[in-house]
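=== RUN LOG ===
request id: a7f3
mode: sequence -> structure
chains: 1
length: 545
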Amino acid sequence: MGGGRTRGDGDGSGPGTGAAGDGAGTGADGAGAGADGAGTGADGAGAAIGPRPTAAAVARRRGPVVAALMLGMALAALDGTVVSTAVPQIVGDLGGFSVFSWLFSGYLLAVTVTLPVYGKLSDTFGRKPVLIAGISLFLLGSLLCATAWSMGSLIAFRVVQGLGGGALQGTVQTIAADLYPLEERPKIQAKLSTVWAVSAVAGPAVGGLLASHADWRWIFLVNLPVGTLALLLVARHLREPVREGGSRPRIDWPGALAVFTTGTLLLTALVQGGVAWPWLSTPSLGLFAGSAVAAAATVLVERRAAEPVIPGWVWRRRTIAAVNLALGALGLLMVAPTVFLPTYAQSVLGLGPVAAGFVLSVMTLSWPVSAALSNRVYSRIGFRRTAMIGATAAMLVLLAFPLLLPYPGEPWQPALLMLLLGASLGFFQLPLIVGVQSTVPWAERGTTTASVLFCRQVGQSVGAALFGALANAVLAARLGGSGDLDSVSRVLADGAPQDHLRRAVAAAVDWVHAGAAGAAGLALLVLVFVAPRRFPVIAEQKHDL
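=== RESULT ===
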């Protein structure tokens, strides 16, 4: 990163230093620093003037902003779990059973394809306007969803929600890195992880209560007071570094459209393939071909753009490319427990939906705890080695699924495995996110964070398609070429005591988790052979947010 002062993440020998000195300096990363932290970097942050605020004053100033971030994250985290439990009531009121899956697919598509765009916008215009716009758009979508008159209109309004959700997910994570120096970032990440954990447990209960005792429209209306409070806190308390005057920022609209088109075509093919139409059908092949053409066009457009939405350095820098690939593999493996374990719990163990959800939610209890503790490890042995430990542990846990889940099994067995998997993934994901955010200056952090989240989301879509096909293939082999996971699960849900069907589902889920172990192994290979031995952490630049 130019000639600015840098340091390694420590690989067992403590922080290393690059070209450094105790005096003032200016680097391309914007980390020019003197003894008092003054100086001006290339990211456009103004020089600090006057005495630094005390630690207590900084903590008081951060408090409302952190609360806003947690509320914003809660909006995104609760969305899927709350809506899923109200689907029967929604379908009963609006109809459209054949297309209700687009309530989730449409939202996911909108979130994923807008992540890179919002990341670039937050680097160009600042986090605050992007987050305010994202919350406002999410609330508008929520209000529209509550007024939906048909399944088609509800799906369209869910897409509007997703357009705001993309800004929420990426910008909240970026601001979290802006607020805290490297050694304190696990604190805010642990808080955000706790929001996801609480949402996973509370979401289904809240959605069920609202749908049963009020009206399904309230699952969208409850977003309004929560989001409004977050909006007010951000508008009033979030401060950003003063950006010096210069040339007027330019928005790469052709690049944004190209990225949006590519992502939409690819994700639609992955989400609907094997569900709405066969994989080798004309719609699937047409969408995949269209996404390939759009991807090629995106590369050409971005190479010529002055301020590309997805800059080339996202993939040219070894650290960012490695983290993108590793977290793409994480998204891939996460499909196995989150999608297929509840099916196993209900179809094989005979648990109800609530109990099956609890088995899965155990993972979200251990994940934030291990994430909060991971800084004690990576501060000593480095980001890369800590993530390697987490990926290895996750691979071993996933490989143990067939061994530790003997047919028919007991509920405590998958719960224990989920507890171990959550602990492993906390050590895997957090060091990579914190590490990669620490290798870029303020003006590149939004783009970097968005690229990481984008790859993880794409990994989830690929995993859903890949493992769904794997599960159905195993079932077809076990049942003589007839049946898929959805149809078999419905038969078992009706109370049919068919042991051979339960064994077939158990075998399919075992193979899916073996595939997830392969994804963890792929992430481990990326960390071993692609990631640098030491993450090139840059010197912290002081921003009084």
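=== NOTES ===
The chain has three domains: 54-242, 252-306, 312-539.
The longest strand covers residues 6-8.
=== END ===
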